[in-house]
């Protein structure tokens, strides 16, 4: 479990064997964007803790990494975590520091759309709370734990990348919980970005539109538009998101992509649809 390490904290460090020694936590790493980002980072020499509620999907991600380029046995840690539970988040970051020695990146990615298509007046409070607990409270808890570690460690600093959404800018119909939490993430990003300056903690956000994952499977079959019509929408390959996150992650800490918007080129978003 001990990854090869250097003390460089300003861009990927290089070990004697030529591998990067940087350490990342990726939440929601058992599927979709989280899995793709974890594999992208591992393939470029990072050590990555994979977090999510389902151990079996985390282990599938680890198996894919083991079969991939430059695989290192000691580079992956699977930690079953419900990001909405403070005790799980504390345990996750403790295990990461015990295993890898420090933390250079949190990709704050775990999220849920919640019950799609339910009008606001019919949305059960429990459903609202589940989305808030996952998308906002979970992201806060992970960011807080990462911030504490990055502030205290030597060399000081690190990077947090929050996974927002196009829904951090504009809603889809009947998506009040998802849209509200994704707008709130923008506030989380800005506040952490300001508060992180004294400690070399860089905080940015990626706002994605229509990457092909489980969450967007219905985009291609037909999804409700603002004008009341159902329409299928284009999607993009999730690996294009992963490459963007890696670029953001590997900048020196003196540089930060504050907000990146990555869209399926022809999706209805720009130009009022
Ligand atoms: N795909 C897109 O086009 C798109 C666009 C905008 C934003 N996003 C954002 O991207 C992120 C990932 O979405 P995705 O498209 O990759 O969908 P996905 O495959 O459904 O991924 C969601 C991930 O979050 C994890 N998760 C959910 N609740 C959790 C909890 N309480 N604790 C820990 N992990 C939890 C899930 O794993 P477990 O069920 O095992 O916990 C799953 O791996 C989300 O934040 C989403 O809002 C996606």
Structure, described:
This protein has 7 helices and 9 strands. The chain is an alpha/beta fold. It has a single domain, classed as 3-Layer(aba) Sandwich (Rossmann fold). It has a 7-stranded parallel sheet with strand order 3-2-1-4-5-6-9, sandwiched between helices. α1 crosses α7 and α4 packs parallel to α5. The protein is globular. The N terminus is likely disordered. The structure holds NADP nicotinamide-adenine-dinucleotide phosphate (NAP). NADP nicotinamide-adenine-dinucleotide phosphate binds next to α1, α4 and β6.
List the helices and strands and how they pair.
Blueprint: E1 23-27, H1 32-43, E2 47-52, H2 55-66, E3 76-80, H3 86-100, E4 105-108, H4 125-152, E5 158-163, H5 176-196, E6 201-209, H6 217-221, E7 223-224, E8 230-231, H7 238-249, E9 259-263
Parallel strand pairs: 1-2, 1-4, 2-3, 4-5, 5-6, 6-9
Antiparallel strand pairs: 7-8
Helix pairs in contact: 1-2, 1-7, 3-4, 4-5
Bound molecules: NADP nicotinamide-adenine-dinucleotide phosphate.
NADP nicotinamide-adenine-dinucleotide phosphate binds next to helix 1, helix 4 and strand 6.
Overall number of structural domains = 1
Give the overall shape, derived from the CA principal axes.
globular
Please report the first level of CATH classification, the CATH class: Alpha Beta
Low-confidence stretches: 1-20
Distance between the termini: 48 Å
């Amino acid at each position: 479990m001990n990854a090869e390490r250097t003390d460089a904290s300003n861009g990927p460090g290089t070990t004697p064997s030529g591998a990067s020694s940087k350490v990342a936590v990726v939440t929601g790493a058992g599927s979709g964007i989280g899995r793709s980002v974890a594999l992208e980072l591992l393939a470029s020499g990072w050590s990555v803790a994979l977090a999510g509620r389902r151990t079996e999907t985390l282990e599938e991600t680890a198996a894919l990494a083991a079969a991939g380029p430059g695989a290192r046995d000691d580079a992956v840690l699977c930690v079953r975590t419900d990001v909405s539970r403070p005790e799980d988040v504390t345990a996750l970051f403790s295990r990461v520091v015990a295993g890898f020695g420090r933390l250079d990146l949190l990709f704050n990615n775990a999220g849920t759309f919640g019950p799609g298509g339910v009008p606001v007046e019919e949305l059960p409070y429990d459903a609202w709370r589940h989305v808030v607990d996952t998308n906002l409270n979970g992201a806060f808890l992970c960011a807080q734990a990462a911030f504490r570690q990055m502030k205290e460690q030597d060399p000081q600093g690190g990077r947090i990348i929050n996974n927002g959404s196009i829904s951090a800018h504009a809603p889809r119909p009947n998506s009040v919980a998802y849209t509200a939490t994704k707008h709130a993430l923008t506030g989380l990003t800005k506040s952490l970005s300001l508060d992180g300056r004294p400690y070399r903690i860089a905080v940015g956000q990626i706002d994605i539109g229509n990457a092909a994952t489980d969450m967007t499977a219905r985009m291609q079959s037909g999804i409700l538009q603002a004008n009341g019509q159902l329409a299928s929408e284009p999607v993009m390959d999730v690996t294009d998101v992963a490459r963007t996150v890696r670029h953001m992650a590997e900048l020196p800490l003196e540089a930060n992509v504050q907000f990146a918007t990555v869209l399926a080129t022809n999706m209805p978003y720009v130009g009022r649809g």
